[in-house]
Amino acid sequence: MKDWLDMTSDFYSYMFQFPEKSLEMNMKMVEATGDLIKAKRAYWIGLNKYIDDFMIPYQVAAKYITRVEQNKFSHTPFLDNLQSYADLFELNLGIANKELASRINSINNYHIPELNRCFIAWVNTIFNLEGEDIFEFMGSHAKTLELVAYQYRQSIQDIESEFGFHFEKSGYIKAAETDRFDLYQVFPNDKKVKVRKNGKPVIIIPPYVLGSNVLAFLPGENKSYVHSFANQGIPTYIRILKDIQTNPAVQVMTGEDDALDTRLFCEQIKAKHGKPVTLNGYCQGGFSAVCDLLSGELDGLVDALITCVSPIDGTRSKGLGQFLRELPQRFNDLAYGTKTLPNGSQVADGDLMSWIYKIKSIDDEAPIVAFYRDLMMLQNIPDVDHQEQKSAGQPPHRRRGKKELNISKTVLAINYWLTYERNDLPMAITKMSFDSYNIPITKDGTLPVKLFDRELNFKRLKEKGIKWLICYGEKDDLVEKATALAPLDYVDAEVTMFPKGHVAMATSWSRPTSKYALHKRFENNQRGPVRYQLDLEKKNEEDT
Q1: Do 241 and 318 belong together in one domain?
Q2: Which domain holds residue 157?
Q3: pLDDT at 400 (0 to 100)
Q4: What does the pLDDT look like over 437-470, one tens digit per residue?
Q5: Residue 322 belongs to a domain with what CATH number?
Q6: Are 304 and 279 spatial neighbours (Cβ–Cβ below 8 Å)?
């Protein structure tokens, strides 16, 4: 009798709740349908933005190729033309296969877990089980796609005020200037630290391609390569290339100009501080610093060299160097990347050079791969206030939590740098790097470029007693270990390995509390570049 009464009670309870539950279910379906529409719209808008970022440089490259080939094709034998285009087609086919495999892998990595999650949400909805229902799933899915399509890009743009150098603010003074460069002194952002006027000065040479701002990554977050030196009281200077678009002298500058301007800066800094200068080049800046030293123009002014992830012999590169070797010889020509400015000057197109790196790393940098990589990074961001609404007993169709970007400034700053820090380059400077990736250093240590019509040989560093610290990234896929450590075949140098990749020293390890902070000693008594500079200063004081 009791069981029958319980069953009857349950039946009537269900009948009374049915209209409300039916209405709730209908509301869920309406909301889920709306979220599905928003998700589809955001998906295609977001994906198209990633494709546009990739295809716009491609269109520029196609224009350059067409221009050059109009001349080459008519002056080259037909069979040679046919062979070159066949080789190029084979290379493109290999790139396309790599891109396709990486694309399929990225799509599967995202959609298979999402389909499983969607199925579980349907089961929870139909059987009124605990856990995420279809409404919550679709809402979260739509919000994630909207983050990628809209808010993520805006957040990257917004980091600009915190990223890099802002010389209009306090903390910098212009110490010297030429037609091509400004030299700024960088002061500590730690107000408790005072610059040692008689300390050993360092001039930091940024890369031409990557630009200077990455070396003052996020000063407000204590992530800045240059401030790592300044915050130790070291007289710290950085050489800044003037805007190439508005300075004709930059457009036509040569390696000789680079060396002469660097000599002028070193003369002034040595006179000011009474000590020889340490020259510190990052990436391509390290190659420029080496060339300037080997030219003899800096004799008596510089007694120490630091190079960080610098491509000294690009032919040893398994990435970019190998890509250039696989490229048919006909197309391995700077003419295919030359831009003509309104005043008639020709420069190397920085956007195109950045795009070539993406082609080289197509399995990581293809637009669909990059889109899904960011999508998976953002999908686990929790809905703000969603749990509070659920705990308060609010019906599911009334829970309208929102996703807010809670991404580290480091990620945003890196993406800002990769997206917006692209600079055109003087042709003569580009030619030096181009030659270093196509012509190996000779057996006796002579570089494949000349300055002032002089051969550049590593033996000069030994003759002049120049101390050298070479730093490289353990997982650097842009300037690999063999490329950075090539000088060890010809001269003695101290070596320090940093974990992670190409810009880790300027980002992760520039933070003074990090495990591999630049002012520390590491395993096997390896020294960071700041520690190396401090020890040089101490040794000089002891000797005097």
Answers
A1: yes
A2: 2-162+350-420
A3: 45
A4: 999 999 999 999 999 999 999 999 999 999 999 9
A5: 3.40.50.1820
A6: yes
Distances (CA, A) of 279 to 254, 258, 304, 529, 544: 19, 13, 6, 11, 21
- Which carries the bigger pLDDT value, residue 35 or residue 453? 453
Does 337 reside within a domain? no
pLDDT at 360: 78
- Count other Cβ atoms within 10 Å, centred on residue 218: 22
Q: Is residue 341 part of a domain?
A: no
Q: What are the tens digits of pLDDT across the range 509-524?
A: 999 999 999 999 998 8
Could you tell me which residues come within 8 angstroms of residue 27 by beta carbon, excluding any fewer than 6 positions away?
397
Query: Which pTM value belongs to this model?
Result: 0.89
Verify that 392 and 405 share a domain, yes or no: yes
Q: In what order do the strands lie in the sheet with 425-426?
A: 338-340, 346-348, 425-426
Residues contacting 381, CB < 8 A, separation 6+: 144, 147, 403, 404, 405, 406
Q: Are 130 and 210 in a shared domain?
A: no
For 306-361, the pLDDT digits (tens) are 999 999 999 999 888 788 888 888 989 999 899 999 999 999 998 887 888 778 78
Tell me, yes or no, whether 83 and 177 share the same domain.
Answer: no
> In Å, how far are 293, 358, 446, 460 from 455, measured between CA atoms?
12, 34, 7, 10
Got the DSSP string for 439-494? SPPPTTSEEEEEETTEEEETHHHHHTT-EEEEEEETT-SSS-HHHHTGGGGTS--E
Find out whether 233 and 224 touch, Cβ atoms under 8 Å. Answer: no
Residue 13 has pLDDT above 70, yes or no: no
Residue 363 CA, distance from chain mean position: 16
Residues 413 and 460 in one domain: no
The DSSP letter of residue 223 is B
**Quick count: other Cβ atoms within 10 Å of Cβ 234?**
25
What letter would DSSP give residue 296?
A: T
Q: Are 479 and 311 in contact (CB under 8 A)?
A: yes
427 within 8 A of 334, measured Cβ to Cβ: yes
State whether 519 and 405 are in the same domain. Answer: no
C-alpha–C-alpha distance, residues 119 and 121, integer Å: 5
- 156 and 176 housed in the same domain: no
Contacts with 439 (C-beta within 8 Å, 6 or more apart), sequence order: 315, 448
